Amino acid sequence: MKINDLIVEKKQDVEWANGYENIRDKFETAIVLYNARIEAGLTQSELADLAGTSQKTVANIEKGDNVTIDKFTEIANALGKRVKITLA
């Protein structure tokens, strides 16, 4: 099951959906990085090596932990991607 499908399924639970709204931005950032890494065919360790960081840092971001914009940008650049931030 893909992560996006899991989110849709879990949102049926009102309590889970309310909790998700509190962490949505972190979670969406985690999903974006995960999907980009998988699309590139890289493991967390391989991406970490390309970005000059640790596998643990990549794993933590993919879990939704906090990360600086600088670190996220370095990792995105290692994937050949740019970071684009919008406020909605």
Structural account:
The chain has 88 residues and is mainly alpha-helical. The chain starts with a helix and ends in a 10-residue tail after the last helix. The chain has a single domain (3-78), classed as lambda repressor-like DNA-binding domains (434 Repressor (Amino-terminal Domain), Orthogonal Bundle). Helix 3 crosses helix 4 (55-62). The protein has helices at 3-10, 14-39, 44-51, 55-62, 69-78. The longest helix has 26 residues, at 14-39. Helix content is 68%, strand content 0%. It contains five helices and no strands.
Features of this protein?
434 Repressor (Amino-terminal Domain); Helix-turn-helix transcriptional regulator; single chain; Lambda_DNA-bd_dom_sf; DNA binding; Cro/C1-type_HTH; 5 helices
Short account of what is shown:
The protein is mainly alpha-helical and 88 residues long. It is 68% helix and 0% strand. Helix 3 crosses helix 4.
Detail the topology: elements first, then pairings.
Elements: H1 3-10, H2 14-39, H3 44-51, H4 55-62, H5 69-78
Helix pairs in contact: 3-4, 3-5
Q: Beta-strand percentage?
A: under 5%
Count of the domains: 1
Residue share in helix: 55-70%
Run of helices and strands: HHHHH
CATH topology: 434 Repressor (Amino-terminal Domain)
Low-confidence stretches: none
Distance between the termini: 29 Å
Number of helices: 5
Tally of strands:
0
CATH architecture annotation: Orthogonal Bundle
Protein name: Helix-turn-helix transcriptional regulator
InterPro entries: Cro/C1-type_HTH, Lambda_DNA-bd_dom_sf
Pfam families: HTH_3
Organism: Weissella koreensis
